[in-house]
Amino acid sequence: MTQTQQPQQTELKRVIGPKLLLLFVIGDILGTGIYALTGQVAAEVGGAAWVPFLIAFAVALLTAFSYLELVTKYPETAGAALYVHKAFRIHVVTFIVCFIVMCSGITSASTASQAFAANLAAGFGLDLAPGGILLIALAFMLLVMLVNFRGVSESMGVNVVLTLVELSGLVLVILISAWALAGGQGDWSQVVLFQSPDDKNTLLAVSTATSLAFFAMVGFEDSVNMAEETKDPSRIFPRIMLTGLGIAAVIYVLVSICAVALVPIGELTDNETPLVTVVQTAAPDFPIADLLPFISMFAVANTALINMMMASRLLYGMSKKGVLPAFLGRVHSTRRTPWTAIIFTTVLSLGLITFVSLGQDSPVVVMLGGTTSLLLLTVFAVVNVTVLVLRRDRVEHKHFHAGTVFPIIGALACAWLVFPFSSGRDPQQYLIAGVLLAVGLVLWAITYFTGGRRAYREDVDTRVIATTDLDGRD
Length: 474
Description:
The chain is 69% helix and 0% strand. By secondary structure, the protein is mainly alpha-helical.
């Protein structure tokens, strides 16, 4: 630990107990994925839509074991970038991991904007063409930019409220669906009916659906950034993170079972508001059917705002560390917010939304949600390897131990869902991810060859980007 990092650690107050941490984990996982992508998962595997969510939970659980060992071993704010830098000490690798996390925030927020627009249209009964949905999504991202510029910051109290709102929508879907199914509605045989596109075998169809469903499971890893503000993190993190993951998995499996049992698969496919359709089918005269689109809007709006705040602050932090051009580190004189980073990340998001909306045949939420899971699964594969590399680094205090088998299986499972031959992903997802990474590498190269090399040499034994907060997505 360097001298310049000590003051930051002592200033952070450990105020987060088990209950608040649990709500943070659950709130970070829940969001756009389940509200917008249930129908797309069903399109790949039919009525067995709950299976990919269950497999995604298993992969997330394996990776969670690795994160738990690392966060209890190094209870510091920074996340994947810190762990990778500790393990490999290669600045460009640390930068790539950090930038990928930032990009995943942008793609996640862009996915949320599309879901927000679709739910807004459903809530107000608007029959909009794709161009109209696009305009609403773009306007929403500009609104997020303005809120971000004003300096809105996340607090645990706000997170509790937002989490309860997100949970309420999903619990209502489950309860209303259960009531309808108990009354004889629906078709239980659909739940075990496997259907895949004609050109895919069973394994590839399940892998494709799991790659998409994984977008709904991400977010658990962000809780490691609260380590320095958590009471006794080495003790409470394991049970709280695993409990949060388990609760989210149960909710997701129940929601997906209710969806396929009540609504014909054809109606779920390419449906951008699947849970609204589920509630309207289960109880067409029940007032909650009209309220759910607005609950969904609130949930995905929270996802977008948190992720765009993370992306802009992370870009700002990398600029202040001398890893990206200095102009991205400018702070507004009155609002005290990183305005150039906010504008830059917003422009990237607007470009992504427009490109995917106008240039692709696949649904926008599939392209952007799939790209988000692609980016994060890549990071998770690296983290699973990192935990094994850092076994040589001993610490004095007790910490969680993930074993050897789980990280290896986790790394292989994440890699399986990343590679094109095994995941069945749309090639455009790799294109989007590649373009974003290319933008980052260009910015890094400009900085490095215009004076960054000296900073890199001076900082060779310190944690580059280690004090930058990496924050939530989904």
